[in-house]
Specification:
16% of the residues lie in helices and 40% in strands. By secondary structure, the chain is of the alpha+beta class. It contains three helices and seven strands; from the N terminus they run H-E-H-H-E-E-E-E-E-E.
Length: 124
């Protein structure tokens, strides 16, 4: 659990607009994602029809934060229609033990710290 907090605090998750419109009630922050029973990085591979407020998507799992294995995670998940997700993009998802993922945020890794100046000196 601490590793998840450390990893997500070191890297930022970009896209403030999506962050505000997609996470469900109680999921406005990374701590909200931690309330989910399954937290993973996935790439959406295929979109299916909508069922009420949700749309089915096939996913390719990239990395599991919780649980450490994928025994309780399905390769077809339900994402709220309000999320406006795009096939082929990597997302951080927080789901219940079924396949409903109410926390869906685009996952873009950008270091918060800028690297030190790496310019080469002309002196030998």
């Amino acid at each position: 659990m601490k590793a998840l907090v450390l990893l997500l605090s070191y890297f930022s998750i970009v896209s403030a607009e999506k962050l505000e419109e997609c996470p469900g009630v109680g999921h406005k922050t990374i701590k909200g994602a931690q309330a989910s029973e399954v937290v993973a990085q996935v790439i959406l591979t295929k979109k299916y029809e909508s069922y009420g407020r949700y749309t089915e998507h096939d996913v390719e799992e990239q990395l599991f934060y919780r649980p450490a294995n994928k025994t309780s995670y399905y390769s077809v998940i339900l994402i709220p229609n309000r999320c406006n997700v795009t096939t082929g993009i990597r997302y951080l998802v927080g789901c219940n033990l079924g396949n409903t993922c109410d926390y869906v945020v685009p996952f873009t890794i950008t270091p918060r710290r800028k690297p030190k100046n790496m310019t080469m000196s002309s002196k030998h």
